[in-house]
Amino acid sequence: MTIVTIGTGALTFEQVVAVARQDAHIELGAESKQEMARSRAVIEAMANDSRPHYGVSTGFGALASKQIPVALRAQLQVSLIRSHAAGSGPEVEREVVRALMLLRLSTLATGRTGVRPVVAETYAAILNAGITPVVGEYGSLGCSGDLAPLAHCALAALGEGEVRVNGILTPAGEALANAGITPLVLEEKEGLALINGTDGMLGMLVLALTDLQALVATADLAAAMSVEGLTGTDAVFAADLHALRPHPGQATSAANMRSILKESPMLSHPTEFTRVQDAYSLRCAPQVHGAVRDTMSHATMVAERELASAIDNPVVTIDGRVESNGNFHGAPVGYVLDFLAIAVADLASISERRTDRFLDASRNHGLNPFLADDPGVDSGHMIAQYTQAGIVSELKRLAVPASVDSIPSSAMQEDHVSMGWHAARKLRKSIDGLSRVVAIELLTAARAMDMRAPVVPGAVASGVVAALRTRVEGPGTDRYLAAEIAIAHELVVDGTLLAAARNAGGEIS
């Protein structure tokens, strides 16, 4: 069993994915328990203070000027969670909820929020028991934290609301009891500390970047196989040409494509290449794919900084002060989520253009129209490109930034918000769409290569086609195409085709 130890430092991408997707076991480090106890003493010292302290002895948001009597301060925290658990819409995916809870737990463990160790221990126990709070898609504006999603998780820790256990909808109190977990009884500031973070949008960013690492490499593979299947040239991918424009991502994608295309008999060689230049969608693939890679690098830097952050308001500083701040604003995360959605849409767009070239007899260099077995009787991959086009159109709409929007809330106290949660939600849809577009390109390229027999592709492409042919038949009369697209998509998402390329000698980063 994988064990993830939560300390006072930053979690890694690998740890977040291990807990979110693989149900890794969580343990709290001794140092974090000590730091939480130390900062909790600061909060308890002001619990009976007559001076106002936000989140301890006052209301919240626009009600921050309301002084709360000592006797009602614990009730204040419970009321906060119940009232803010106001999400609506479809349930958020299990992996997202687990990532969200883990990242809130990580911030609690820094000791900067002033909660008791038992609060963090309860969150760890819930995650370890496989209990997943039900969180609706709508409710976060990406400022003052992902309020509603985090509040639903906190509500479950109180033994209220609904959760899923092994996929079964269950009352939270019953699920906690079955797991031997005592529901939390909140004390001063603890409710606020459970909802005041960018954990949802950050969790989705980490998961998205993890998925894109493999997907962009697979897109390089698809682009190279399209160049090969269209009898293009690999001369434009030479290292010295790309060194003239030293973007790191571009160099990586070009190197990947050179490796995939190495010594392919299907390529046109400079002495016999009569087209002078390949089309942009082929020739410029490293530039476009590389720009996606560089965008991912920037987003990764932002995510790593956010993973190293302790976000709460107010926060207990290292020297023991309790200070209000605006670190919960999701702008840094929201911007890169939107930036990635733009990059994903363009990556899918260039993939669709390469697919379309295969289907046009005036541009596919000797292949049947639409790669049909008997054009006219058969339609081949005609409508597969329609599917790509429909997805790409949707991705362009999803590329419209969410973070440029702001709807004021809380009686104008929270008058500028990030909408980062929404940027994250649409990015997840975009990545799903990209994986389908790339799968169709690979399916089409493989069919085109088979139709060029007896000429064969290079070793890497041959390995990929062989892997695909274990599940999908080669060219022939029209068959039920949706099923074949679904299989190709599965083999892209689970990494089978990328692994086949690497096993066949492709050095793909």
TrEMBL record:
Any GO BP: L-histidine catabolic process to glutamate and formate
Keyword Lyase: yes
Any one cellular-component term (Gene Ontology): cytoplasm
Pathway annotation from the record: Amino-acid degradation; L-histidine degradation into L-glutamate; N-formimidoyl-L-glutamate from L-histidine: step 1/3
E.C. number: 4.3.1.3
A GO molecular-function annotation: histidine ammonia-lyase activity
Location of the protein in the cell: Cytoplasm
Keywords, comma-separated and alphabetical: Histidine metabolism, Lyase
Enzyme class: lyase
Catalytic activity: L-histidine = trans-urocanate + NH4(+)
Pfam family, one: Lyase_aromatic
Main location: cytoplasm
Superkingdom assignment: Bacteria
Matches recorded under NCBIfam families: hutH, PRK09367.1
Family in the record: Belongs to the PAL/histidase family.
Name of this protein: Histidine ammonia-lyase
Gene name tied to this protein: hutH
